[in-house]
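INTERNAL AUDIT FORM
Audit reference: QA-55
Scope: verify that the stored structure record matches its stored sequence.
Auditor: D.O.
Record contents follow.
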Amino acid sequence: MSGHYIFRQRDGQYESTPYSEYINTTVYNDTSHQRFSSQFGKRDANGKLTEEAWVTIELDPDYPVVKVEVDLKSLPELKMSGYEVVVDFHDMVCYDTKNEFYTDSNGLEMQKRVLNHRPTWDI
């Protein structure tokens, strides 16, 4: 477990390593929905993709949600044992979230989080 879900990180324990570099984005647009697929990867000295991932964002006017799908075609080169691949999204819009945010429970449900707050006991 990464510790991110239960928020028990120690300083320096969970330094992230970028999976790959951005390659390109393809936009699909039709009457039923919009989809943006971005390709990420790393190339070896011969130009062959050694690591590849696709991130697809889909907008459907019939549903008030944004569907995000991450497809890892390969795992990163092993640099240590016991590592975990996680998706880290960054929102470039600056707005006041009132210290609230949501985390994904492995696709099962979104968990509401409040910074420096735990409902079962006083921090």
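Auditor finding: record pair retrieved intact. The longest strand covers residues 49-59.
Action required: none
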